[in-house]
Amino acid sequence: MIRYWLRQYFCVLCMVCILAGQVAAEQGVWREANFEGVKIAYFDAGKQNALTLVFIHGWSCDISFWRLQIPEFSKSYRVIAVDLPGFGKSNKPHDRAYTLEFFAKAIHAVIQDAKTTSPVLIGHSMGYSVVRQYLLSFPGEARAVVNVDGTHLRIPKSPEARAGFEKKMNNRNTALEGPKRKEAVRRVVESTFYGKTPMPLQDEIMAVMTSADVYTANSALRELRRLDQWKEISFDVPCLALYAKAARLPPDHEVFLRRAFPRLAYEMWDDTGHYLMLEKPQRFNAALNRFLISLSR
Q1: Which of 187, 263, 267, 281 has its CA 20 to 30 A from that of 95?
Q2: E strands along the chain, which residues?
Q3: What structural domains and CATH numbers belong to the chain?
Q4: Residue 167: which pLDDT band, with cuts at 50, 70 and 90?
């Protein structure tokens, strides 16, 4: 336990130093892109002429969830970690819907601002949903994608089942937008630990996610669950998918994803909760590194 705390403290301390700009500029710098009048904060580190990795956090999170990847991968690649609009250091306007399309276009604005092309898009949870929308909005622009325990809704085909599914989604949205929102959010976050996330990390994650901007969080989740944007589509792009077995996904989940990504590398982990990159950083980094190396073969 002592070693765990020392390791976590060291990683956090290193990341704080980097994000505060207290190291040389070539190691990383905060930048801002502008999209539709919204300032989007992103952290730019690593080798400027190398393959670009774009890290996209999940619902109610921020780029600190990638703190154990940014220093590692900036040694060999250019790393861009984005605070999605409405989260982290980015602007949080309350005059718009936080749709997947809006997020995808914001990521595109960051990529343009960074003057890079053909990035590898890495999305955790809702961040993967944003990546999928990016492929729809900007076909052919991504070199590859990485799905980290990502949300990919499967819409029932029969009208009756679809109606029931939609009702369930709406009920969940209503609970998260009601007078007992705080308790509802805590239950949602707790459900993602799957009983495997270390308690100190649970406390940290809970603190970040329960303090997210309420308007943004509610809008983003409601828009994420809009059924019309989840048609089954196939993408001809390399994809790595890493999932936690404890999420109790359907038995045919891999088969389902292979229809969407024929060039899929798929792993199911049985020793972690939803936050694979924080809970098992060495294993995560090794899996991502293998995938990146495979892209050059």
Answers
A1: 187
A2: 29-35, 38-46, 52-56, 78-82, 120-124, 144-148, 239-244, 264-269
A3: 2-294 (3.40.50.1820)
A4: confident
